[in-house]
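Exam prep: given the inputs below (a chain plus copper (II) ion), describe the expected output before reading on.
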Amino acid sequence: MKKIAIIFVLSLIQIVFFGCGEKAETVIPTASIDAPTSDNTGAQSYSVNISGYAFDPAELTIVAGDSVTWTNLDSVAHSIVADSFSSDNFSTNESFTYTFDATGVYEYFCGPHPNMTGIITVTK
Ligand SMILES: [Cu+2]
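Solution:
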């Protein structure tokens, strides 16, 4: 008799906690996260303004294959000088574009004003 009572109580607990056979809805995620690709077919173009003897933004993180265009909004000429590439001096409203094909951290400065510095970080 005691055993039956225990089974009854356990069944009652099961009904209270798990319901009467009500099925829990199974949610199957359909969205998938795009795996990063090295060929980066959706290459992006980024802009860096040169204004008040400063790069804006001074630090930028992009993906390999993306390009960056620096536009000079100052009244004096500036340039972009990095270890692996550099521009000529370019004047007001002129710009320089470079496409970053390789990953890495590219520190650069302005030729005429070496205290003007910036960093482009290129990820996969
Ligand atoms: Cu400069």
